[in-house]
Amino acid sequence: MNPTIKDVARQAQVSIATVSRVLNNLTGYSEETKVKVLQVIKEMGYQPNAIARGLINKRTQTLAVIFPCVSNSFSAEVLHGIEEVAHRHQHSVIVCNTSDDGKRTLNYLQVLREKQVDGIIFASEVLQDSYYEALQAMKVPVVLIATETDKPHIPYVKVNDKQASYDAVNYLITHGHRHIAMMGGTKDDLVAGVPRVEGYKQALADHHLPYREEWIVHADFQFDSGCTAMEQLLTRPRDYTAIFAASDEMAVAIMTVAAKHGIRIPGDLSVIGYDNVKLAEMVVPPLTTVHQPLVEMGEMACEKLLTMIQTGETVDNTIALHSIVERKTVSDLRD
Amino acid sequence: MNPTIKDVARQAQVSIATVSRVLNNLTGYSEETKVKVLQVIKEMGYQPNAIARGLINKRTQTLAVIFPCVSNSFSAEVLHGIEEVAHRHQHSVIVCNTSDDGKRTLNYLQVLREKQVDGIIFASEVLQDSYYEALQAMKVPVVLIATETDKPHIPYVKVNDKQASYDAVNYLITHGHRHIAMMGGTKDDLVAGVPRVEGYKQALADHHLPYREEWIVHADFQFDSGCTAMEQLLTRPRDYTAIFAASDEMAVAIMTVAAKHGIRIPGDLSVIGYDNVKLAEMVVPPLTTVHQPLVEMGEMACEKLLTMIQTGETVDNTIALHSIVERKTVSDLRD
DNA sequence: CTGAAAGCGCTTACAG
DNA sequence: CTGAAAGCGCTTACAG
């Protein structure tokens, strides 16, 4: 057994209350006893039991983050940011992988409640009513990342998806493209699916450019379904010069499938992505894309959560700033 | 305040002992009281406090996994596997990101001890003596993943790095390559650095093929340093037809830099990677590489850890099976 | 400056 | 079948 506070109290010949005081840097003991207690602690290799502490303090110093999928680079970068500031503030982070499964998500929520986590970060998924209710019942601060809600007291950190998409398409337009296709994300995803398509349509409309149903294709943001979607698009007449993809993985899928069909990028077809994950710089040619500051978004979300935990008050949303990162997949068609 | 066991006991007009019994499916209560208690629990929305439980049971149902970097796809895939089996066995997982910083690692170890985690998975890093001592002091089961140690009672899950590298180089050789360069990982990394270079040298020696100092270059497994290393290699005479890279990210770096220099792959230069992360299928041309079953390795490590926790006994190492995944970056030079 | 005692929310002998 | 009581390892009034 590891030594407990009782053991050091006995050894130092003081009460456990005194040991607790020096442990927590409170007042109420002489320099002499402090020295003695500290020495005994060192000798015995004593470390406080955070579980016992948590029971009294009602703080576990533990946060949880819920992802639909932990193994894509989007999640990985966000997680990196979260973990970084959590650690800086002496908090641990539990990761949950829902696999987009509602039951599983609810199950996680219950476990997190039982484990008394101090706060939850909910990422990249629509906040269902059932989740919201469970979260309400937990009485724990929640912040959203790369998603949003109209429910009160739940701040979010995200980019303006519609605007970012608008800017991406606008970038293509200012480079002379007038016939632009799109690979959207999950069709009825109200957060990352719909708004990005809206931004696309808006940009076309504002420039009086044609919009065609056959130019749009949908996938689930990932590479594999992106390949399928691209094959599907290539089934139709290729009367566009550029494609806007609602994620980098899908953009890369476009590049891969294009290569298979002998379509050169950007010579025959321009591509612009969305996310700016590391992958975007690793492909050849490197992908022009919309940058989302993922690591920073993770950091900001975690900071928000921490201040909500500390103050007990709700915090404002923040719209993270996106930008276009110019690389080599968009050709300039202007003369 | 959320209701406690006391609240339901009062409401159901039984003792807390009885509530605890039905909660834990023990024996010792009538069907009648069971029904009543369960109903009250439901009405009040009562959920047990895992912290209080943990204090008594000395089990927190929480595991920790320590990575040098959580945001690369290697870690992401391993984490995915770990989280999956942990969740299946009702355990949560805390992630720690050491950034390869020894002090920070030791700090994590202390936190994990205070938090009374039931077990630790230590990934992709050499187990320093100082870590080992801290781990010993915690008296908690540990399993290693993608790394190894000669310390007792610490099983590992990994591929045979030397053999896997040997096989990669042998693959190049059987495809007619006789002058083969290598981009190694961190030079004095005893786990993933040295053995992979040894496998490379051994394969050359066994086939009486030339080995040259100038053909070897080192990076840190990641893309960025891989680019630098490739630039450095291109500074020297290009009298080889293939390169073996000790990670997929470095292989992709080779491809990127090669493209910049107008070197065609696999026409002018063949490349074989190591890991088989998702990235390998996403690049153009898709990367031929050594497959490590990362998700499965995460799963196996987690299962090992769980059985060590349950039985209190050490478990055997497992050498995960690697294989060569043939894609499009190695040209066949045989006539 | 210091300690005895109550209590956090549970589980588990023990007694009936 | 059921409850009173001790105890897990701490913190925190309270009293001195």
UniProtKB/TrEMBL annotation, chains A, B:
Name the Gene3D superfamilies on file: 3.40.50.2300, lambda repressor-like DNA-binding domains
Q: Which residues form a coiled coil?
A: none
Q: Which InterPro entries match?
A: HTH_LacI (IPR000843), LacI/GalR-like_sensor (IPR046335), Lambda_DNA-bd_dom_sf (IPR010982), Peripla_BP_I (IPR028082)
Lineage: superkingdom: Bacteria
Cited SMART domains: HTH_LACI
Q: What keywords were assigned to this record?
A: DNA-binding, Transcription, Transcription regulation
| Domain HTH lacI-type, residue spans | 3-57
Any Pfam family the entry gives: LacI
UniProt name for this protein: LacI family transcriptional regulator
